[in-house]
Amino acid sequence: MDPLTPVDPCDFTVFGGTGDLALRKLLPALYLRDRDGQLPEGFRVIGVSRAEVDDDGYRALVADALREHVAAADLDAPVVERLLARLHHVTLDIEDVAAWHQLHDRLKDGAASDDVTRVFYLAVAPGLFGTICEHLDEAGLVTERSRVVLEKPMGSDLATAQQVNAAVGRVFDESSIFRIDHYLGKESVQNLLVTRFANTFLEPLWNSRWVDHVQITVSESIGVGERGSYYDRSGALRDMVQNHLLQLLCLVAMEPPTYVDRETVRDEKLKVLQALRPMTPELVDRDTVAGQYAAGLCEGRPAASYADEVGHTSGTETFVALKTEVQNWRWAGVPFYLRTGKRMPERVSEIVVVFKEPPHAMFPHSEGPTEANRLHIRVQPDEGMRLHMTAKEPGPGGIRLRPVSLDLSYAAAFGTRSPDAYERLLMDVVRGNTTLFMRRDEVEAAWTWVAPILERWSQPSHRPRKYPAGTHGPVAAVTLLERDGRSWQETE
């Protein structure tokens, strides 16, 4: 289906409809899809929360959110009014079984209500996923055209993830469950599949014979802010590595599917997760680094320590660096280095594939540095790719070598605004396209691999290493690569 084709009529219900995620991401994304003509006349948005607001009050709240979170140049008054007219609000305490009739009545009052697609977006704590699904079923609101969207975290470990999956799975078929990872909706991530599988020049080099190592970095310049209470129970390993970074690793390392479709891509990603080298206690000690930011200077401004932000001394990690390997025929012996952290110098997400040096020095009397070829895939911001090569500097006389790069900026190449990840993913949910969403076995395989790290790090002797805010993490993260004769590829 053409991604610009309007979707079928839909009742899009957001539990947590007055929360930060809904107002900052979901409703702005729906507005932008409405602006581009993708929402049909019968598309309704029902916000569900405990807030005592009526439809008009909810529309006023969303109008303020659009002005705050959508660029002024993208705001179109008639489209804003059109979206606001689609909005409704149901005040509901999820635990109050008797109150669910209000949502039932609102969903049933639409024309041909049983024939529209129903999306239930659970922008709430994972502990409520099972309860909400059970009440939806009891209220008779789950139809063959119903879908449920689950926001991370998908549990806090393997056991809780299995509990969440089982509770939701008792009501919804796996094909109707959309576990969202917004990183997979980014244009550069999707383009990684196209780059790999719609072009022939890279595939012969995409293996252990020619690739020296792979680096995946997701860094943030912000601290925990208002998420301190959640983050202190989670930490960077659960919050970022178990989902975002492992998903990026899967897309880099997966085998070519027969064709790109809903299950074929997810089948290949699962194989990568199952092939990751198991993390023994010895490997956790040797190949992982946990850090926590201390006070420092970030983006030119003083930044408080993590302990000061959460209000107490904590053993929660805000930084993770680790080394792993995909133990299969294609990648055996190629290290994958993963790194993520808060209060780092800048916000950037990038995949760097570093190729091996040429097997023979052909220019023994040349001048200038030589560097390994590198493919930088920028996920955010300024999505694009850069291929680093060695070229001859123009001029007579001897050969002078100089590193150069071939740049692809998506914004410059295509001359259009790059849609936010949620814009793409929300429309995929409505269309029923599960390709970019995590399947249950993927989630559980990721938790299985992460479990030994969580267990080892939970020991009293383990404490995250401190690093000043505004730096690239603890010194131990640098040492992790230096002992292999490598270094982190920092943003240029």
TrEMBL record:
<dbReference type="InterPro" id="IPR022674">
    <property type="entry name" value="G6P_DH_NAD-bd"/>
</dbReference>
<dbReference type="InterPro" id="IPR022675">
    <property type="entry name" value="G6P_DH_C"/>
</dbReference>
<dbReference type="GO" id="GO:0004345">
    <property type="term" value="F:glucose-6-phosphate dehydrogenase activity"/>
</dbReference>
<feature type="binding site">
    <location>
        <begin position="93"/>
        <end position="94"/>
    </location>
    <ligand>
        <name>NADP(+)</name>
    </ligand>
</feature>
<feature type="binding site">
    <location>
        <position position="342"/>
    </location>
    <ligand>
        <name>substrate</name>
    </ligand>
</feature>
<dbReference type="InterPro" id="IPR001282">
    <property type="entry name" value="G6P_DH"/>
</dbReference>
<keyword id="KW-0560">Oxidoreductase</keyword>
<feature type="active site" description="Proton acceptor">
    <location>
        <position position="244"/>
    </location>
</feature>
<feature type="domain" description="Glucose-6-phosphate dehydrogenase NAD-binding">
    <location>
        <begin position="14"/>
        <end position="191"/>
    </location>
</feature>
<feature type="binding site">
    <location>
        <position position="220"/>
    </location>
    <ligand>
        <name>substrate</name>
    </ligand>
</feature>
<dbReference type="GO" id="GO:0009051">
    <property type="term" value="P:pentose-phosphate shunt, oxidative branch"/>
</dbReference>
<feature type="binding site">
    <location>
        <position position="50"/>
    </location>
    <ligand>
        <name>NADP(+)</name>
    </ligand>
</feature>
<comment type="function">
    <text>Catalyzes the oxidation of glucose 6-phosphate to 6-phosphogluconolactone.</text>
</comment>
<keyword id="KW-0521">NADP</keyword>
<dbReference type="GO" id="GO:0050661">
    <property type="term" value="F:NADP binding"/>
</dbReference>
<comment type="similarity">
    <text>Belongs to the glucose-6-phosphate dehydrogenase family.</text>
</comment>
<keyword id="KW-0313">Glucose metabolism</keyword>
<feature type="domain" description="Glucose-6-phosphate dehydrogenase C-terminal">
    <location>
        <begin position="193"/>
        <end position="489"/>
    </location>
</feature>
<feature type="binding site">
    <location>
        <position position="239"/>
    </location>
    <ligand>
        <name>substrate</name>
    </ligand>
</feature>
<dbReference type="Pfam" id="PF00479">
    <property type="entry name" value="G6PD_N"/>
</dbReference>
<dbReference type="GO" id="GO:0005829">
    <property type="term" value="C:cytosol"/>
</dbReference>
<comment type="pathway">
    <text>Carbohydrate degradation; pentose phosphate pathway; D-ribulose 5-phosphate from D-glucose 6-phosphate (oxidative stage): step 1/3.</text>
</comment>
<feature type="binding site">
    <location>
        <position position="152"/>
    </location>
    <ligand>
        <name>NADP(+)</name>
    </ligand>
</feature>
<protein>
    <recommendedName>
        <fullName>Glucose-6-phosphate 1-dehydrogenase</fullName>
        <ecNumber>1.1.1.49</ecNumber>
    </recommendedName>
</protein>
<dbReference type="GO" id="GO:0006006">
    <property type="term" value="P:glucose metabolic process"/>
</dbReference>
<dbReference type="Pfam" id="PF02781">
    <property type="entry name" value="G6PD_C"/>
</dbReference>
<feature type="binding site">
    <location>
        <position position="186"/>
    </location>
    <ligand>
        <name>substrate</name>
    </ligand>
</feature>
<dbReference type="InterPro" id="IPR036291">
    <property type="entry name" value="NAD(P)-bd_dom_sf"/>
</dbReference>
<feature type="binding site">
    <location>
        <position position="182"/>
    </location>
    <ligand>
        <name>substrate</name>
    </ligand>
</feature>
<keyword id="KW-0119">Carbohydrate metabolism</keyword>
<dbReference type="InterPro" id="IPR019796">
    <property type="entry name" value="G6P_DH_AS"/>
</dbReference>
